[in-house]
Design a protein that fits this description.
By secondary structure, the protein is mainly β. The protein contains no helices and five strands. The protein has one domain. Strands 4-3-2-1-5 form a five-stranded antiparallel sheet, with no helix packed on it. The N and C termini lie far apart (about 30 Å). It comes from Paenibacillus graminis. This is DUF2945 domain-containing protein.
Amino acid sequence: MSKFKKGDAVQWTSQGQGRTTTKRGTVHIKVLAMRNPGHFLPEGTKKSHIKFDLRVAEFERFIIAVPRGGKSQIIDYYCPRPSLLQLVEEGDNQ
């Protein structure tokens, strides 16, 4: 049973190139085990906006929509390990 649903605000911390970054976004969709996550992205999503491996996984996961911020209207899509996701409470503006 998953603790997240479509539209939930979530955050997670990732590491790369010696930096730690906290990302925030909303749950776009839950992808069940052994399903191709590419089928669940919005039609017309550019490859440059997909920030995860599109291979089929043996476990449930979530596609997270993350706005780039600033004046950009671009949405990037991530698929972090479910164990890293934390629900963001309303009014939590860290």
